[in-house]
Amino acid sequence: MEKRRILVIAGSDSSGGAGLEADQKVIAAHQCYAMTATTALTAQNTQGVLDIHYMPSAFVSRQIDACIDDIGVDVVKIGVP
């Protein structure tokens, strides 16, 4: 069976406990192929979010298109923001 290709559209957690980073860990544990479209970058730790930098929507769309056009996508997982 081929690896499932999962595109995660979500924010990045600089502390690694949530967001894209956490999703990638779970996807890898299930032996699937993870791709990401980053909607926001955060400065955060276990105590809270200190700052958020939102990606322009046109750039997020380009990330999504790049994954679909080349690798293909079986599943889309959407996070926040």
Q: Helix tally?
A: 2
- Find the count of extended strands (DSSP E, 2+ residues): 4
Strand percentage lies at 35-45%
Shape: flat
Order of SSEs? EHEEHE
- Strand-pairing-aware structural class: alpha/beta
List low-pLDDT spans: none
Mean pLDDT: 94
For the termini, the CA-CA separation is: 33 Å
Strand order of the largest sheet: 3-2-1-4
What does this structure look like?
- The protein is α/β, with parallel strands linked by helices.
- The protein has helices at residues 19-29, 57-70, and strands at residues 5-12, 33-45, 48-54, 75-78.
- Helix content is 31%, strand content 40%.
- Strands 3-2-1-4 form a four-stranded mixed beta sheet.
- A hairpin with a 2-residue loop joins strand 2 and strand 3 (48-54).
Key traits:
31% helix; 81 residues; alpha/beta; four-stranded mixed beta sheet; 2 helices
SSE map:
Elements: E1 5-12, H1 19-29, E2 33-45, E3 48-54, H2 57-70, E4 75-78
Q: How would you sum up this structure in a few lines?
A:
With 81 residues, this protein is an alpha/beta fold. It is 31% helix and 40% strand.
